[in-house]
Write a structure and sequence with these properties.
Elements (H helix, E strand, L loop, with lengths): L6 E2 L3 E8 L3 H12 L4 E5 L5 H6 L1 H18 L14 H11 L6 H9 L3 E4 L1 E4 L4 E5 L4 E13 L3 E3 L7 H4 L4 H6 L6 E5 L3 H12 L3 E5 L11 H14 L2 E3 L4 E5 L7 E5 L4 E4 L1 E4 L3 E3 L33 E3 L10 H19 L16 H4 L2 E4 L4 E6 L2 H6 L4 E7 H4 L1 H6 L6 E7 L5 E8 L6 H9 L4 H4 L12 H14 L1
Parallel strand pairs: 1-7, 2-3, 2-7, 3-4, 7-17, 9-10, 9-15, 10-11
Antiparallel strand pairs: 5-6, 6-7, 8-16, 12-13, 13-14, 18-19, 19-22, 20-21, 21-22
């Protein structure tokens, strides 16, 4: 790397070096600074990362107007006021506002305000506790860490390897969230969270969407009813959903022309654009892992403090997508808080609390993982599904409730409310292991469920958590009543 630049600067030493200035890297920096440590943060793109500019923020800014119009159409008296389609140009303006027109100066200033030193450029680990940064000015900045280097470089969209995909110029999540033109026909490959969210958004913006799912149902990693309800809603909105289907090849003879997708049943689909939403791969291919005995391009194996295993001296950490524990921004920021706290404690000579639910252990990654899919209806889930708990060998009790059949607040929220809830209990302790809500507006219920799972709250105590009437949160009471009624049988 040193030969690729015209000048090398003298070493600069910090207590902690963070590679990646997305939400996770910023959170590590904030906790390390709160612990009195000096911090350098390295970023080669925009400060704020994928979440701020091409994922969570822009996608939700695009989805909310689509769902708001759908919400209005579900209410007598309100639907009459909806006189036209969603205005795509207005949605794009809204999105651009929330991504600050891809200007990262505000987030860069936030780093400066916390006292972190921002180094712009491509950072690579350069042996133990060292990072070499190739800057835009073609210099190499050498950084040395006293205590720790933290890798927060995130992930990128996986693009399937198949004939014709290069000429097809497929979209990834980045194109799907920063383009300002609605394609006439959009084919989406993948039935996971990104695929179904983008199908919801782009169908609502006026595209003719075909969703191609390899699995027999969309959202296969969630409770079965979640995929069924989202699938039915997508079809009702006009999305052509193809299940148990694989794309085998593509062709786009003209760069400005349509794409033809060949499916495994030998049928074809023609689209103006194609979005690949088939997973993520780690951005670790060119960050110097080989200099410390690790494999470039790999997910980084970490312990519960997010310290990378197999690195002598225990100075290397990885938080966020790169460790593959939970590819979610909020969960990565949670890990970052653990990492920052752990580094600061060790620097101060204090012992780490790595017991389950301890101050320096990311226990929620495996026991209270919360996730939302912003479709219409929404999917909100935390903890273990019934299948996951059963595979773990646990004795469980499962309680299901049809939300519109039992919750008055849901009917007031939408005249034709669609939704379901599931509670998974530990049969031995009666504590909550997992909760799934599917329905309109259920995302705001999720944190109550997260508290119940993380707090290992028993059913006996939940009876004293009284939901307000008439709200959708009454579903909690209905779940408990269904459990009680089942016990009487």
């Amino acid at each position: 790397m040193k030969n690729a630049a015209s000048k090398t600067t003298p070493d600069t030493t910090f207590d902690v070096i963070v590679i990646g200035a997305g939400p996770i890297g910023q959170s590590v920096a904030a906790r390390a600074r709160a612990g009195g440590l000096s911090v350098a943060v390295v970023e080669k793109e925009l400060v704020g990362g994928e979440c701020s500019y091409w994922a969570c923020i822009p996608s939700k800014a695009m989805l909310r107007p689509v769902v708001a119009v759908a919400d209005a159409r579900r209410l007598d008296g309100a639907r009459e006021a909806v006189t036209g389609p969603v205005a795509a140009a207005g949605v794009f303006r809204r999105r651009d506002r929330y991504v600050t027109d891809w200007d990262d100066s505000g987030q860069a200033q936030s780093l400066a305000d916390m006292g972190a030193h921002l180094v712009r450029g491509h950072g690579r680990v350069d042996g133990p506790r060292r990072v070499a940064v190739a800057t835009p000015e073609e210099t190499i900045v050498l950084l040395t860490a006293v205590h720790a280097v933290v890798v927060c470089t995130g992930s990128r969209a996986a693009v399937p390897d198949m004939p014709g995909i290069a000429e097809a110029k497929v979209w990834t999540n980045r194109t799907a969230t920063d383009t300002a033109t609605v394609p006439g026909r959009l084919a989406i490959i993948g039935g996971g969270p990104v695929g179904v969210e983008m199908a919801t958004a782009w169908q609502g913006l006026g595209a003719e969407v075909t969703l191609i799912a390899r699995e027999p149902r969309v959202l296969p990693q969630f409770e079965e009813f979640a995929g069924e309800l989202v699938d039915a809603s997508l079809k009702a909105a006009g999305v052509d959903v193809r299940h148990s289907t694989t794309v085998t090849s593509m062709r786009r003879p003209s760069p400005a022309g349509p794409v033809t997708l060949l499916l495994d049943d030998h049928s074809e689909i023609e689209a103006d654009e194609v979005l690949a939403a088939v997973g993520r791969v780690p951005l670790t291919g060119d960050i110097g892992l080989e200099t410390v005995g690790l494999t470039p391009g790999s997910w980084l194996d970490v312990d519960d403090t997010c310290r990378v295993r197999g690195v002598e001296g225990g100075w290397l950490y990885a938080a966020g997508d790169v460790n593959h524990r939970a590819l979610l921004t909020h969960q990565g920021k949670y890990q970052a808080r653990m990492v920052g706290n752990a580094i600061a404690a060790q620097a101060d000579g204090r012992a780490l609390d790595t017991s389950p639910w301890g101050r320096h252990a990311a226990t929620a990654d495996t026991h209270a993982l919360a996730q939302v899919v912003f479709t219409d209806p929404e999917v909100a889930t935390v903890g273990l599904s019934a299948d996951q708990a059963a595979r773990d060998g646990r004795e469980i009790r499962v309680v299901d409730v049809d939300i519109p059949a039992t919750v008055v607040g849901a009917l007031l929220y939408a005249d034709d409310y669609q939704g379901q809830a599931r509670l998974v209990l530990d049969g031995a302790t009666d504590c909550v292991l997992g909760v799934t809500f599917v329905g309109y507006g259920v995302t705001e219920l999720l944190h109550s469920a997260t508290v119940a799972v993380a707090g290992q709250v028993p059913v006996s105590r939940l009876w004293h958590a009284v939901p307000s009437f008439p709200t959708i949160s009454e579903v909690w009471l209905r779940l408990l009543e269904a459990l009680r009624d089942g016990e009487r049988q």
